[in-house]
C-alpha cells in the first residue's frame, strides 16, 4: 500500500536535510519494494514570505491527508522582528496543535564512535540510552490569556500555564506504556513544590501508575532533574514531563551526545499522522553551504518507518547504516574539528551506500 508523506522543508538548513531524507526514502523504496508518495508544503519563515502566514491552510490540509509528516526546521533572524503570533515558530506550534500531536518522543543515545564529542566524561555517558516524553500541546506555550498591558503605569507581560487532567493522563499513560516496553522505569519530572499544575500532574501519575504494576516510577523536581542529567544520566530510562520542562531538558540531554545534529524526534497523536523532525534548529549561519549534518533527520526517518508504518526491519537497517558510517570515522563539520569532513550530500551518500550493503548482505 502506498504511504503518503508530507515533506515540510521550512527554513535555513531544513531544505538540505529534507533533501537528504527524500533520497534515503527513495532508496528504501527501491530496496524493500515500498511505495512512498511525497508531497511538499510550506511552513515557517519561507511561508510567511510566500503566503503571509507561517502555516497556510494548504499545508495543514496536506498534513491531515498524509500518513506521516517530515519537518526540516523553522525560524531565523530574518523574521525575528515580527510579533510573536506571526513568527515562523507559530507555524510549528499551530501544526502540533491542529494535528493533536500531544506526545513528543526524544531518544538520547550515545553513539560509541562519538563518545569523544561529548563534554561529559566517558565513565558518565557510557551506556546512556534514555527517552524523554514531552507533553506537546498544553502548558505555558498554549495557555491563555497571553498579553501585555499597563497596570498602574507599569508594563507587565502575562503568560498562563494551564493543564487539564485529561491532557496529563494522556501523556503519562503513553510514557508508562513506553517504559514498559523498555527497561521498566519511569521518572516523572515536575515542580510540585511550587506549581499547582505540577501538583495535579503528580496526582495523575500516582493514579495511572496503578495500571502499570510492572513499571517502577519516581518523581523528581525539574531543577534536580537538570542536575542529574549531567551528573548521572544512566539512572534514567524514560522521563515524562510537561511542555516547557521537556523542551529545556531535552535540549540539555542532547548535549550528552555532543551535538544537536545527532538527535531525532517524533511527535505522535492518538490516531492521526505523526510528525518527525530533528531537534536542531534552522542554523541560518550554515544554510546553503552544504555543511548541515543530515543524521538527525535520517534518524527521524527511521522513527517514522517504525512508528507510522510498522516497518521495523527498514527502520533498524537505516539506524544500523547511520551507526556504520560513524564507526568508519565519517563526520560532518559539527562532529569534529578536522578539516577533512563530509558535506551534507556526501554523508547522505555514505548512509545510502551502507543501506545498500546491509540489504545485499541480508539477502
UniProtKB/TrEMBL annotation:
Subcellular localization: Cytoplasm
Keywords, ordered alphabetically: Amino-acid biosynthesis, Branched-chain amino acid biosynthesis, Cytoplasm, Leucine biosynthesis, Magnesium, Manganese, Metal-binding, NAD, Oxidoreductase
Residues that bind NAD(+): 76-89, 281-293
SUPFAM superfamilies for the chain: Isocitrate/Isopropylmalate dehydrogenase-like
Pfam families per the UniProt record, alphabetical: Iso_dh (PF00180)
Protein name: 3-isopropylmalate dehydrogenase
EC number: 1.1.1.85
Isopropylmalate dehydrogenase-like domain mapped to chain residues: 4-351
Cofactor binding, note field: Binds 1 Mg(2+) or Mn(2+) ion per subunit.
InterPro entries xrefs: IsoCit/isopropylmalate_DH_CS, IsoPropMal-DH-like_dom, Isopropylmalate_DH
Binding site for substrate: 96, 106, 134, 223
Lineage: Bacteria, Bacillati, Bacillota, Bacilli, Bacillales
Keyword ATP-binding (UniProt): no
Catalytic reaction equation(s): (2R,3S)-3-isopropylmalate + NAD(+) = 4-methyl-2-oxopentanoate + CO2 + NADH
Protein task: Catalyzes the oxidation of 3-carboxy-2-hydroxy-4-methylpentanoate (3-isopropylmalate) to 3-carboxy-4-methyl-2-oxopentanoate. The product decarboxylates to 4-methyl-2 oxopentanoate.
Family statement drawn from the similarity comment of this UniProt entry: Belongs to the isocitrate and isopropylmalate dehydrogenases family. LeuB type 1 subfamily.
Cofactor(s) listed in the protein's UniProt record: Mg(2+); Mn(2+)
Pathway info: Amino-acid biosynthesis; L-leucine biosynthesis; L-leucine from 3-methyl-2-oxobutanoate: step 3/4
One of the protein's GO biological processes: L-leucine biosynthetic process
GO MF: 3-isopropylmalate dehydrogenase activity; magnesium ion binding; NAD binding
UniProt keyword Magnesium present: yes
One GO location term (cellular component): cytosol
